[in-house]
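To illustrate this point, what follows is a protein record of this kind.

___
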Amino acid sequence: MTGGAGVVAGGDYDDDRKTDDKVDDRKLYAAELTPQKDVKTDARGAVVFQYRAGTLTFALVVANIEDTFMTHIHEDEVLGPIAVWLHNFRTQDEELVEGRFTGLLDAGTITDDVIEKGRVPDADSESVADLIEKIEAGEAYVNTHTEANPDGELAGQIERLDVHDLAKAYDKYC
């Protein structure tokens, strides 16, 4: 697993700030993971993403989830084509976490090579840039699958996160 350090930019971050006369391309995104339709669970979660220098770093946190075995970014809809695995990120394959789990489920940095390894052939995203286009278009979802709900227990759309609203998100999740 690649460390999740640096997932959230600190300081007085501003999307329009310039560094060396170039627009800083760092962007933050998040997905609130809530129970899917007709799923009864106490589990909840969140994923925070930071796009920087052509990569997408993430941290996936869940609470009260039982027997989870995979989490993906899906394109177009919650069960659309898989663009990349978030859990198990290192192998881009299933890994059962038995029993009830609360905490950091996985973290890492998504690169073009990671997408190439984890995507299904019918996914549009062949690169991080393609995935960012899907996210910006509102066509990217995170779905966490469990043994009780193999089609997905928790899911949420990935949305742009305004860093000025981070204090509100901190209060909500921490």
Remarks:
- The two ends are 23 Å apart (CA to CA).
- The CA atoms of residues 61 and 104 lie 4 Å apart.
- The chain has a mean pLDDT of 86.
- The first helix runs from residue 112 to 118.
